[in-house]
Amino acid sequence: MEKILVLDFGGQYNQLIARRVRENNVYSEIRPYTVPVKEIKAAGYSGIILTGGPNSVYDENAALCEKELFELGIPIMGICYGAQLTAHMNGGTVEAGASEYGKVEVKVDTASRLFDGIPAKSVCWMSHTDYIKQVPVGFKIVGKTDVCPVAAMEDSAKKLYAVQFHPEVLHTQFGSKMIRNFVYNICGCRGEWTMSSFTTRTVEQLRAKIGDKKVLCALSGGVDSSVAALLLHKAVGDNLTCIFVDHGLLRKDEAKQVNDLFRGTYNINLVSVDASEQFLGQLRGISEPEQKRKIIGREFIRVFEAEAKKIGKVDFLVQGTIYPDCIESGVGDAALIKSHHNVGGLPDHVEFDEIIEPLRDLFKDEVRKVGLELGMPENMVYRQPFPGPGLGVRIIGEITREKIAILQDADTIFREEVANAGLDRSIGQYFAVLTDMRSVGVMGDFRTYDYTVALRAVDTGDFMTADWSRLPYEVLDNASRRIVNEVKGVNRIVYDITSKPPATIEWE
Ligand code: XMP
């Protein structure tokens, strides 16, 4: 299969670069800059993109690649630091100065294959403090800004290209077209990567691998595990068994929806366990957030293990790992940030021979497309993320059944109002939190002493940073009025207007 290598020098937009390539129906993978050239050569890439990065090429401990990379004959496009590296490694000079940040007008040579079909003047996104002062021998300047003498350069005979700006960022007006030009015009790709071909191929591969052996899948109701389960079911039918653990901290009616869909509609072998008594019993009296998370994680494994034992030894255990969980970075360690979010440890408690991760090459938007290919309903496919510990981390302080019921009702109303306003797909994550605060209110002739519910809605792509959503007042007003009127025990609503950082998305 044709594929593009995104060689990671630590830039913040690396995953975006890989996604932009894939949006053009060409598979791409991110690997650290330390991968030996020999391996790159053997892997048969159609092209290589060198990413941005935090260093200067002239730093003592700069992230450099092997010089031979530029002699493989594989087309290369350097972006930002990658452009400077291309200059530096091929005999050009890079110096501090000519820095630019944000939107800048760039003038390009439209005769360049990289800029085919792109106007001579357009807007690009810059973010650099160093610049290419002199291009290497054989290179020609094909782009400039008022500040930057080499905004783009190329040695078309050697198929080496470099841009100082970021074509992967949407602010670069024709960035997507530039990436397409590189991938098709210069690397000669044909565009074989589609989610329908992925689905067909993966189902065939899974069928061939599994045959009539037994597969076990932990189903959470989230997008990843649901799509993984459907793929496996399509491949091996009844040889798949799913276990769904209801810890009692799900959103309203969620357990029923999962049961109806997977057992009813899809006819999947589903073991559904209502373990809420066990979870809530263990959580009684506990209000410290990390302790709650630990207990929920531990009990989840206990319940799952007990159910898996009843099934006996299986051959394969399915995990819904997706590509961003697997990217190994040569610079920093992005994986560490996410580790606490996953309910880890299952493989140590279940008897199986091999793990299967059918989604490990896919970005989230691609997982969703596979879900649609498999006929999953849109409301499941476009579900917002939901934390493993569920409402457990959205009920501040001790968790009780009464509080769960209050929060479920308030959260349902908020989600309904967001959906009524047509905003349910555009907001990254939105939910209600039951604070531990109660305050005085008046309802009719009565004084009340009820809970405050906080509403949270954030715009985010990566969930590492987030801005609070500017929800229309009307949506907030409708949600607020409905919650205090319809949910007993709540008399005050507040809206969280902090971004991440410094706050986090969840309250605990
Ligand atoms: P924070 O609150 O850290 O959340 O800004 C970032 C994203 O991670 C989710 N989240 C969790 N997911 N277990 C999970 O599976 C957890 O303990 C957990 N804590 C936060 C959160 O919903 C958001 O999408």
A few lines on this structure:
The chain is an alpha/beta fold and 508 residues long. The protein contains 15 helices and 18 strands. Helix 5 packs across helix 6 and helix 5 crosses helix 12.
Task: Report on this structure.
The chain is α/β, with parallel strands linked by helices. It has three domains: 3-186, Rossmann fold (3-Layer(aba) Sandwich); 195-381, 3-Layer(aba) Sandwich (Rossmann fold); 400-495, GMP Synthetase, Chain A, domain 3 (2-Layer Sandwich). It has 15 helices and 18 strands. It has helices spanning 14-23, 37-43, 81-89, 175-186, 195-210, 223-236, 254-265, 276-283, 289-311, 323-326, 334-338, 364-373, 378-381, 401-420, 473-486; strands spanning 3-8, 27-32, 47-50, 76-79, 93-108, 121-134, 140-144, 152-155, 160-163, 215-219, 240-246, 269-274, 316-318, 354-356, 429-443, 446-459, 467-468, 490-495. Strands 2-1-3-4-9-8-7-5-6 form a nine-stranded mixed beta sheet, with helices on both faces. The protein has a five-stranded parallel beta sheet with strand order 12-11-10-13-14, with helices on both faces. Strands 15, 16, 17 and 18 form a four-stranded mixed beta sheet that branches. Strand 10, helix 6 and strand 11 (240-246) form a beta-alpha-beta unit. 41% of the residues are buried. Mean pLDDT is 94; it is low at 332-343.
